[in-house]
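User: Can you fold this complex?
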Amino acid sequence: MASSMSHRQTRRGPFGHRGPGAMRGMRVEKARDVRGTLLRLSTYLRPFTPALVLVVFLIVLSTALGVLGPYLLGMAVDQFGNPSGLLRVTLFMLGAYVLSWLAQVGQNYIMATVMQKALRTVRRDLFEHLQLLSLRFFDRQPHGELMSRLTNDIDAINRALSQGITQLVSNLLSLVGVLVAMFTLNLWLALGSLTVLPLMVLLTLAVAKRTFEGFRRLQMQLGQLNGMMEETFSGQRVVRAFGQEAAAIEAFDRNNVAVRDTGIQTMVLTLLIPPMMTVLSNADIAVVAGLGGWLALRGMATVGTIVTFIGYARKFAQPLRHLANLYNSVQAALAGAERVFEIIDEQPELVDVPDATALDDIKGEVVFDHVSFHYVPDVPVLKDVSLTAQPGRTIALVGPTGAGKTTMVNLLTRFYDIQDGAIRVDGRDIRKIQKRSLRQELGIVLQDTFLFSDTVMENIRYGRLDASDEECIEAARLANADQFIRQLPQGYQTELSERGSNLSQGQRQLLAIARAVLTDPGILILDEATSSVDTRTEVRIQEALLRLMEGRTSFVIAHRLSTIRNADKVLVINEGRIIERGTHEELLAQRGFYYNLYMSQFKGTNM
Amino acid sequence: MQRILRFLKPYRRDSILALLLMVAMTAADLATPGLVQRIIDLGIAQNNMTVVRNTTLLMLGAGVVSALLTVGNSVLSVRVTQHFAADLRSALFRRVQSFSFGNLDHLQTGQLMVRLTSDVNQVQQIVLMSLRILTRAPLLLLGSFGLMILTSPQLALIMAALIPATTGMVLVFVAKGRPLFLEVQRKLDKLNTVLQENLAGVRVVKAFVRGDHENARFDAANTDLMGQTIKVIRLFAILVPTLFLFINLGMVAVVWFGGQRVIHETLTTGQVVAFVNYLLSTIFPLLLMGMMVNILSAAQASVHRILEVLDSAPEVQNRPGACTLSDMKGRVAFENVCFSYNHDCSEPVLNSISLVAEPGETVAILGATGSGKSSLIHLIPRFYDVTSGQITIDGTDVRDVTLESLRPHIGVALQDAVLFSGSIRDNIRYGRADATDEEVIAAAKAAQAHDFIVDFPGGYDTQIGQRGVNLSGGQKQRIAIARALLIRPRILILDDSTSSVDVETEAKIEAALEQLMADRTSFVIAQRVSTVLRADKIVVLERGQIAAVGTHSDLMASSPIYQEIYESQLGDGGGPNG
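Assistant: Here's the predicted assembly.
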């Protein structure tokens, strides 16, 4: 359910900019290696160099025209006595504004395409790389966390990139342009106007510095609140069953108030910036008007110049306000990018060796040759395990929870690589076989059947993508699933909801078996389910499985007596070792571990 | 929306004050162009330095006042909205705490999280914006317009053309944009679904070597999203520059016509300049009002989702006049109970169930999936209420006692052993925070959890990871059982809670329970026949009805269904012969 949570957090517009103080799931984190991350991000933009050059040109153009605007306005005011001059300036203004419009629309258009394409590439790289990573990686990384990288972090990059680059460039340019224009036009007025500037800069910096810390704390507290809520909600039934609502509310209140109070502190400061900028630019206008008036009276400035400077005073506040906002969002984007690259840089643990070959025409002989394995160093899971499965035989793996049965299956499929010994299929070390070709020959029915939100038909077809509808239905029939599927509202076309929650566990298992039937594997691996399936469905499942196992080498993590009895060989595993092996009868006769395990199931029966 | 705004009530004074401050701020803003006009026309043109100086000081004064008002407005509006959001979250959370299982069936964790986080944020944003800028925009627009008319009615005619044009354009874009935005959201959801399933089903993907297939699926969703996003951005890429263009065109017109009038001396330079400044003041409110429509419609959806939670009445509540249950002996009786999740007994999940469990008895419940086993035991602690009939404990209808006094007597280990992050000790102690360490250990021992717990390096202080990832299914179940035992319940309910525990351990748990629960009533749901053999009563459920009741030997003699189940699990009629 962690994943469904992060899923939700991304329900935001693709470029929804909600002001600096928006309480969003975004972390304001500092990137560690700013330069490296920027360089790396820029590689995603490299294919679009010509377009970006054009964009920069358009930005320069529109910014220059923007700086020109107030100047022309001032000129026009000074031409109020001169009809022909006024006409000329007015036409200039018209031309400048239309051109500026074209340049802005053009740059927005091009940037939209470039940025979205670049983002698509980042997303694709990340996803494709995920497909290469081994299970060890997924064991380590909580799913919610991964989801968040593909959604929230990319969203943060998106937010900064889609507006950031153009804004950064145009704001800096416009700041410089305005300064140059002011000093060229009138030194004294320029100096006068700049008296307010330090105030603006200082204010922005002071607030940015303070809020940065505040936001960090706010994000942390929000994280705690969300974590607390999610855990409570997903365990809500337990909370109610044990009557712990008051304790939950108390914990919630603590977190909720912390978020609220930090929120007030941080947001007040942040939200002060925009209106304060307006106030300061009004003050700037006052200074310009007053000083300008004084200068005009001494013939050192025209009314037009004053008008121009008033225009610049308005323009000044804008870039500063934007730059302050940008600082936060660029930081967040860089931190996001860093987290995304972290995953892309993750080494796929199991890569095919260069001379790996395909496995064709499998007979199905499987050998474990003195295999040892651990997930975590110093905690061995399998110790010196050896076994041979002849083609077509059924091997039952029996033992208590945590004995290492599932691990053996994970090793045969090369979800993990062993540390010692060798596993061979048809005499060939599986590390020398292409993973893809190996797994294609292995049919796996896991205890927890995973279904995709798609139709029943497509879920079966997952076993072999080129199978026809008829083949899928035939597979379902062989798996004893056809009957219940036909009773579903839309039969094979019924849409399954998330994780197939509209089917019972038994039905989901039948679908998994149908999948495996369709795959037609050389070797079959079954993790026999134990719980939550009623006995009649169980009988159907057993029947289907027996049919599936016929003629294939099968490994069954067995919980059912009938499976164990039918197996050609029973391996009893305890604490990572095979401690007993033989047929059911032989093992009973040994009166060892298996005998006890078996007897405990029947203790109390008087048969 | 009004119903949500009720949460603003406690902060009404602050909200109104914030709004008033904003009106004052806007007035100060609007004064600037007029004052500039004074400087130009009365100061510079009349060669009057005093006017220039005084007016400048007036403007600076207005700036200072405006700054103070801004601070006031920001502090007030932020405080109001943060309190508002916290109160709203709190109301939602408290509501969820009162939910019964029936409510929770409809609202899953993910959905609840959306409502408490992003939905509350949406609404919070709207309130904040209303208190700060949203109300300011129309004021600024109207004020500017009014002052333009005052300055020069003739020039204001230009505005008469400009305003409908800009407003019209904004409306057209908004109308065009909304369906596009919604589509982006859908595409985003699609992408996330692919991603989420890929992560959740990573074993299946790898086992079936479907990496390429998954890449293709993702790529399709990814490209779709990109295309749609580009469409939206492009639409709005035109909007903003065009709005500016309109305003600028208006300015050109003002300069041209105004300039003519200055030449003919029907207007002063200062008036034209003031007019231009008013015109520039209208850009921002226009833009804002364009955005507002989208934000509002998003907030509307959020409000709806929030109310959905707040309006869900807990399905199980204390009856008025419900009494407190003090001592319990533990005699549980089902009297002709019918139960249906949709409160309609024509399609019952349980039908005419009558059953008595005497104090100290162990009742085992067997039956197919969907036969109603879990539903049956969920009725005892009132996770759901019966649809008809009644359940009594020691002769009192469970609906006549308060939930708070009923549940502490009932220990439940549910099918899905949910643990919380924290130490193992805290998890076992969950139901009784004041339990001593000895009691915790005793409960763990009975649940056969003690041995593996002390094997952990941290022992009972071992931190349990997210959803108990560092424990096996069987270990989680055993901790959940210990948790249920610790509250020393009069009635113990085990809902298939040993399914992941191996047979041997399960037998040990049973033996321990037999002693521990000697004078208490237990209900045990199990799949394995071996689990239920020793029960005082075995209830076989079939399609919501009791198909057979009795001890193992009774049922072996009389119930074909029970025999069938037994056979299928313990093999071809034979048992161990050694």
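The longest helix of chain A spans residues 245-297. Chain A has two domains: 28-344, 366-602.
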